Amino acid sequence: MARKTGSHSDITGPRVRSAARSLIARHGFAAVTMRQIAREVGVQAGALYLYTPDKQTLLFDLMKSHMDELLEAVSSVDLSGPPERALEAFARFHIAFHLDRAEAVFVAYMELRNLTEDNFAVIEDQRKTYENLLERILQRGRASGVFAVHDTKLATMALIAMLTGLTTWYREGGRLDRGDIQDMYWDMVRKAVGADAALSA
Q1: How far is CA 54 from the centre of its chain?
Q2: Together in a domain, 14 and 106
């Protein structure tokens, strides 16, 4: 199959990444071939190597791009206020950001095992940078008596897993809209960190 007319790196490159992300999210990294990706994009298999040297690099680029976007977006969120307000801001941001990126989220979380050791280290460092934002909020809340959290690291992992899990079942136009989901999940997050218990103690 010949390359389509008008194909350029600034057009085809993003299409390659988009096709790879969708295929990997549906079938898993191990099951997807470069030939399948090429067929989805509409180019010859050999043409993919103009945009990525191999499938491992493509997977890494997908994950790193997702984490880069996440870290850039969260940097504009004000997490410096009182712990409960900061926690609410983090939770609502996390939900809003991830609901629009279900495929990217799946690839970023489920395909870590398929990264090389060096690539894994890069993504893991970015994940820890993000997770630390939440843990610092929990630590501040515990220190000030606002949250009843015994292990902030464990609580951080549990909250992120709960919030990210939305992407596996949420469908636009369903019974609950995004605002409803954010409100209900924030209520669950607040209770999970023992905010009410800490304030009444």
Answers
A1: 23
A2: no
pTM to 2 decimals?
0.86
Q: What is the pLDDT along the chain (201 residues), one digit of tens a residue?
A: 333 444 445 557 889 999 999 999 999 999 999 999 999 998 888 888 888 899 999 999 999 999 999 999 999 999 999 999 999 999 999 999 999 899 999 999 899 999 999 999 999 999 999 999 999 999 999 999 999 999 999 999 999 999 999 888 888 777 888 889 999 999 999 999 998 654 444
CATH number of the domain where residue 135 is located: 1.10.357.10
Candidates 124, 123, 70, 109; CA nearest to 93 is: 70
Same domain, 162 and 112: yes
